[in-house]
Amino acid sequence: MPHPLGWGGRPQFDFHPLFPSFYLELVQKGTSVSLILPGPILKRWAEEDYREHTMKLLNMENAKLMVCKDCEKIPTIIAADNFMGVALFPKEGTFDRKFVISFEPGALAWGKELYDYYEKNSERVESIDSYISTA
């Protein structure tokens, strides 16, 4: 999932231009992918350069795209069947992309609970246009 950053109380959001095509490729290979993005990142995904990838992703049955409008800092959470990874944000400075990774059953359950928390505070994106027009 893409990573928001906080600077001096004004959130900035980290956007990597390869993420839309990377996640689309995973979905096209049959991997189920569920992404929760902050609103500013979703807007970037809806821009001309990434719009086609995002629309394809929305039309895939094994992909779910959600937006968390009230989430200032969403950690990167990877909750897979056999491992979990999480990258949190430092109080100050830039996101350094360091992950805590575990294969322990308790950590896997915690990673799933953390993801579920953010999913409950998000809404599913059915159309980029409808999201952008109401944001």
Give a verbal description of the structure:
The longest helix is centred in the last third of the chain and has 16 residues, at 105-120. The protein has helices at residues 19-28, 39-46, 48-58, 105-120, 128-134, and strands at residues 3-7, 10-14, 33-38, 63-68, 76-79, 84-87, 100-102, 123-124. It is 39% helix and 26% strand. The strands form 3 sheets. Strands 3-4-8 form a 3-stranded mixed sheet, with helices on both faces. The chain has 135 residues and is an alpha+beta fold. It starts with a strand and ends with a helix.
Calculate the terminal CA-CA distance, rounded to whole Å. Answer: 20 Å
Low-confidence stretches: 1-13
Q: What is the element string, with H for helices and E for strands?
A: EEHEHHEEEEHEH
Main sheet, how many strands, which sense, barrel?
Answer: 3 strands, mixed
The helix/strand class is alpha+beta
Number of strands: 8
Determine the strand fraction and express it as a percent band: 25-35%
- The helix count comes to 5
Helix content: 25-40%
The average pLDDT is 78
Q: Biggest sheet: strands side by side, in what order?
A: 3-4-8
Query: Roughly how many Å is the radius of gyration?
Result: 15 Å
Shape: globular
Topology record:
Blueprint: E1 3-7, E2 10-14, H1 19-28, E3 33-38, H2 39-46, H3 48-58, E4 63-68, E5 76-79, E6 84-87, E7 100-102, H4 105-120, E8 123-124, H5 128-134
Parallel strand pairs: 3-4
Antiparallel strand pairs: 1-2, 4-8, 5-6, 6-7
Helix pairs in contact: 1-3
